[in-house]
């Protein structure tokens, strides 16, 4: 089999590892990557990858990209941004990619959705399986948009014959995916202050732990799931939950990333989330607090049994690998 794979967002935290996995796959002969900023695949030693600058909001650019591919991997997205800016790219841009893929020549689409598409609902089962509806949580822009994109995907691809693989990873981390560590407010302090805060125990900022369990997955394991979805000849299309084995706590994450864990009652996290949801204006960054209000632990047995995916890093090993990169 000689596969040409088009990838939107190949330069992101998942993108870099995904291209490495596709470069190493014997069935993949060419990779066409597109994102907005300049990037040189040769600097990474990649030999199958051709990169072009382009915006998924530009339908002609997306049409061009997918017209040359057998498989489209859609990763381009705005995760940390304002509600308004992210909505434009994530909704209109993602629709462009889905529509172009349906009307162009590719036979398969791999889309990285997220655990956030399920939403943070206390009546979701624990663990969450892929048949749970992706309702999203409207008060959190990212969750709302991830749920909306799955809805658009279902509408656009209905009856098309396209093989659609939807991956729903939990939080991705590791040495090449530092966004989780960078999002911690104390890691945004200027360098000498940040080092001081990390070195002196009494200065360590508190990290509230409402008892909600946390899953993590290593970027290389997400990449192997994307590569499997792009190349499999045996696994059925559909949705697959993706998470490393084992559960962590907010305390584990805080401790590893330089904070002082403080246990708080779970009702406090729910109450904070409910107050935030009622406020007329909430800074988009604060909307992420909704993620702590309910368990979003996913069952990954479908990815293991049907896709043949096996994570090589546990959640704890992923966190340790991330923590090693934080100085
Ligand atoms: N990271 C996680 O924890 C996580 C967890 C679950 C699911 N996911 C999902 O996995 C996918 C990839 O995430 P990631 O962590 O790799 O994101 P990322 O690190 O933020 O990278 C985003 C990529 O998209 C590109 N991009 C953004 N806007 C674009 C536009 N308008 N046109 C073309 N390219 C654009 C970026 O490059 P330019 O800025 O240069 O355009 C970059 O290559 C997303 O759908 C995300 O929601 C991520």
From TrEMBL:
Q: Name one Pfam family in it.
A: Epimerase
Gene3D superfamilies assigned to the protein according to its UniProt record, in alphabetical order: NAD(P)-binding Rossmann-like Domain (3.40.50.720)
Domain of life from the UniProt record:
Bacteria
- The chain positions of domain NAD-dependent epimerase/dehydratase read 5-243
Fetch the InterPro entries from UniProt. Epimerase_deHydtase, Lipid_A_modif_metabolic_enz, NAD(P)-bd_dom_sf
Matching entries from PANTHER family are given as: BIFUNCTIONAL POLYMYXIN RESISTANCE PROTEIN ARNA, NAD(P)-BINDING DOMAIN-CONTAINING PROTEIN
- What protein name applies here? NAD-dependent epimerase/dehydratase family protein
């Amino acid at each position: 089999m000689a596969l040409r794979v088009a990838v939107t967002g190949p330069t992101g935290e998942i993108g870099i590892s995904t291209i490495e996995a596709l470069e190493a796959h014997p069935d993949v002969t060419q990779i066409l990557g597109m994102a907005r900023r300049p990037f040189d695949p040769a600097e990474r030693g990649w030999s199958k990858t051709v990169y072009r600058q382009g915006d998924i909001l530009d339908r002609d650019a997306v049409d061009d990209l997918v017209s040359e591919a057998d498989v489209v991997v859609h990763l381009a997205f705005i995760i940390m941004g304002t509600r308004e800016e992210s909505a434009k790219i994530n909704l209109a841009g993602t629709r462009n990619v889905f529509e172009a893929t349906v009307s162009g020549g590719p036979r398969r689409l791999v889309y990285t959705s997220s655990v956030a598409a399920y939403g943070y609902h206390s009546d979701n089962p624990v663990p969450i399986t892929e048949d749970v509806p992706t309702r999203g949580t409207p008060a959190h822009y990212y969750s709302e948009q991830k749920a909306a994109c799955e809805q658009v995907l279902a509408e656009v691809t209905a009856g098309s014959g396209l093989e659609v693989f939807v991956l729903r990873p939990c939080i991705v981390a590791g040495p090449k995916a530092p966004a989780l560590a960078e999002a911690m407010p104390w890691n945004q302090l200027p360098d000498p202050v940040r080092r001081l805060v990390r070195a002196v125990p009494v200065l360590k900022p508190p990290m509230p732990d409402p008892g909600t369990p946390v899953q993590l997955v290593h970027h290389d394991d997400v990449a192997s799931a994307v590569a499997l979805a792009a190349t499999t000849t045996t696994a059925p299309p559909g949705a697959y939950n993706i998470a490393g084995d084992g559960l962590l706590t907010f305390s584990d994450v805080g401790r590893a990333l330089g904070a002082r864990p403080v246990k708080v009652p779970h009702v406090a996290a729910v109450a904070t989330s409910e107050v935030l949801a009622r406020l007329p204006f909430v800074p988009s960054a604060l909307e992420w607090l909704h993620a702590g209000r309910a368990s979003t632990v996913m069952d990954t047995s479908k990815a293991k049994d049907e896709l043949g995916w096996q994570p090589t890093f546990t959640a704890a090993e992923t966190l340790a690998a991330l923590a090693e990169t934080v100085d």
